[in-house]
Amino acid sequence: MIKKEYYGITSQTNEVVDKYTLEMGEYSLSVITWGGTITSLIVPDKKGKKGEVTLGYATLKEYEANIPYFGTLVGRYANRIKEGKFSIDGVKYQVPLNDNGLNALHGGSVGFNSKVWSAESEEDEEKATLKLHLFSADGEMGFPGNLNVNVTYVLYKTGTLEIDYKATSDKTTPVNLTNHTYFNLAGKGTILDHTLQLECDGYLPVDDNLIVTGEILGVEGTPFDFREAKAIGRDIEVAGGYDHCFVLTDKDGGLKEFAYVKEPVSGRTMRLYTTMPGVQLYSGNFLNGNDVGRDGKPYHKHSGFCLETQHLPDAVNFPHFPNSLLKPGETYNHKTVIVFNE
């Protein structure tokens, strides 16, 4: 079943925002057209009790501020671009510096998370589908090219969520799209006891401003080694909190499994697949109690984690990283699949 309802009007542009709720079997997904944002994801635990597994707000006003990017679609370029600068064919481009005035983060000061997407839905007995579209004009946030973006959420009654991203441009432009949902499979507390396994043999070290250095280091013998399942909190203090991009071991470009997460008390699990070369693990380091959840309770440090599938950060400035440039006539393709309680 799919339900569409009015959610609110944006404060700056007076655009109507709708909420779509996709219900299939024991699972439910809610998405608002503001930022294509996942506002709720209901998943049963090992006893069959349904519960919320994402972080989120209660109102559109809060989502318009949304400094942590709870649940949003992110673009035109996810993660950080150093000093917001890049060049294509000798032409220099500048993206607004919205990361402490130092770097461009998640596409600049008005990214895809702050846009109202058009939407249409369809369903059959096995799945519910929400198709979102956004047009980003040439020069928006300093990026070249008129970009057409299509993101599709598909929820299956078996507990699988597919997110499919496609984009085309009339000029060569960097594109890096992802979803910034924060998960907590317990529905409360911290995520430090969640166990995580990553099929990733490398990670990207960062400087004090969280900009990648261009190195790709092996995870062996470091706090970043999740090749065997371990609690997220086991080495988190040594790592200084996780906000790092991991490089998938399997680099063939096809859809492959890269992560498995389990919460021991609820028994809920996530198995994740992607076509992308990297995944940003973020452990909610900057949550400090200022953001209040939909249940009225504040989110504190490590209340949730993100696994953001993507191109490697700042790849537009590192030729040895996998290519993140989209050329005219090409189609950006990116699929991520999450299977719950498999």
CATH topology: Beta-galactosidase, Chain A, domain 5
Uncertain residue segments: none
**Beta strands, count:** 27
The CATH architecture term is: Distorted Sandwich
What summary fits the major beta sheet? 9 strands, antiparallel
In CATH's first tier, which class applies?
A: Mainly Beta
Domain module tally: 1
> Roughly what fraction of the amino acids lie in strands?
35-45%
Mass-distribution shape: globular
Offer a few descriptive terms.
about 350 residues; mainly beta; Beta-galactosidase, Chain A, domain 5; 9-stranded antiparallel β-sheet; 5-stranded antiparallel β-sheet; 2 helices; 27 strands; globular
Characterization of the model:
The chain has 342 residues and is mainly beta. The protein has one domain (2-340): Beta-galactosidase, Chain A, domain 5, CATH 2.70.98. Helix content is 3%, strand content 41%. The chain contains 2 helices and 27 strands. It has helices at 60-65, 236-239; strands at 2-9, 16-24, 27-32, 37-44, 50-52, 73-74, 80-81, 85-88, 91-94, 104-105, 118-123, 127-136, 147-156, 160-169, 173-174, 178-179, 195-198, 200-203, 217-218, 230-231, 243-248, 256-262, 269-274, 278-282, 306-310, 325-326, 332-340. The strands form 7 sheets. It has a 9-stranded antiparallel sheet, with no helix packed on it. A 5-stranded antiparallel sheet has the order 1-2-3-4-5, with no helix packed on it. The model has no long low-confidence stretch (mean pLDDT 97).
